[in-house]
# Entry
Amino acid sequence: MRMLETATPAPPLEVSEWLNTKGPLALPDLAGKVVVLHAFQMLCPACVQLATPQMQKLQAMVEGSEVAVVGLHTVFEHHAAMTPVALKAFVHENRLSFPIGIDRHDDGDAIPLTMRAYGFEGTPSVVLIDRQGRMRFQGFGHQPDLALGVLIGSLVAETA
# Structure
């Protein structure tokens, strides 16, 4: 996981459908919280075995706190297999409780809009967004619990 050289505003989440929320979610709705944005695919082995369970554990630990976990199902391969219906079954079977947005596609491009905007290299990926809505850390691949916890804690500890 790398610290970004400059803190830039996090791009909006381009989501076609939300799961585990009462309505659409936008990053400005989470102003004042540290946001852990977890980009995954349900057929990605590292996502299924490591990163998504890690985010579910984090969600259970931080629920009601100054930290918000937000999932982004960002499909850039195996499009026919990873439909919203299949994702809903995956979320149910894995008892995922954090909000999950389905990354929006435009016509003709296999890479979804939010994935492009954030420059994700693949999945799993994680971005930490500070209380002011700025991207501060970004990582590709599963992030070790301790390293992720230290980074989240450093952002929670910041006052401005």
